Amino acid sequence: MPPRLKRTGRLALLAALLLAGATLNPAPRALSAETEVRAQPIARFGIGRDAVRFGALEYVGGFAYSSSDGRLSGVSSIRMRPRGAGFLAVTDTGFWFSGAIRRDAEGRPVGIADARIAPILNPAGRAMPNKGQADAEGLAIAGGEALVSFERDHRIEAFRPASAPFEAKGRRLPLPIPREELRGNGGLETIAASPEDSPLKGAVVVVAETSVDDAGNLFAAVMGRGVFKVKRELPWAVTDGTFLPDGDLLLLERRYEGLGRVGMRIRRIDGATIRPGALVDGPVLMEADLGEEIDNMEGLDAWRGADGRTHLSLVSDDNGSFFQRNLYLEFRLMDDREAASDR
Description:
This protein has one domain (3-342): Tachylectin-2, Chain A, CATH 2.115.10. The protein is mainly beta. It is built from 3 helices and 23 strands. The chain is globular and about 45 Å long. The strands form 5 sheets. Strands 1, 2, 3, 21, 22 and 23 form a 6-stranded antiparallel beta sheet that branches. A 5-stranded mixed beta sheet has the order 12-13-14-15-19, with no helix packed on it.
């Protein structure tokens, strides 16, 4: 079959299986010394195009990755270490995933080194026994702790230290959104810590995936302060979020409208508008579909690169499916507000 037809068939199957849940892997084993990760660099984000600018973002590079270790699937959120050298991630099958980003001579990401995987431990110090408890969807780093939000069994748990949480027992935190408002598979998808010098002064924010009020707005909250709402535009659903250095909140959103109609976008929310009782919205920085190298995009983080620019890292959730990919994609933020502040 010609290469283009082969790709079309894969994309059709991807669309059909995009939201299918992954089954739990066999009983988790202890943290391994290192997990081998194979990677295939993605030179161009636009398929068959040489463009590097996509909305307010400039493509830096990326790669698809895989492993013979069956635990490496379902990556749902990522937080980068300073200057993007390393990362900590969670999977929706209940595992920590950490490593370092390998780069070529031009600084483009080409793979993962020092990969390690370990089960996320519950307050009793045991691995999550089933998908209902293991469905980790969001990750934030705040106050030296890794905060993980879970769907299905709606909760937030804290793990210390954030630098190496692999053997830490989860500590349950108060639920910031009333439990009765959270949908079974559309709950606490996003958790993100604001910068200390931002309008929210380091507060942690959570946003639901598809849990909405009577007006169709998404439930969200500033932890310890109260609930606010995020305007939802159908068919988009929030899959992750992160704060920019200036305190604005970026939301990663996904759409799935049937065979071949899959997309992702990133929306920017003015951090000064986020407060209990507010309804917030903001402009779209970038939108992509299957004409670009996307998959089931689930994780987003922002960080300051060695070049002084704000970089965005995005990861996909392969749902444990042969027809989907684990992706790591990296962009530079090039919008006018950042450019003006850098002059």
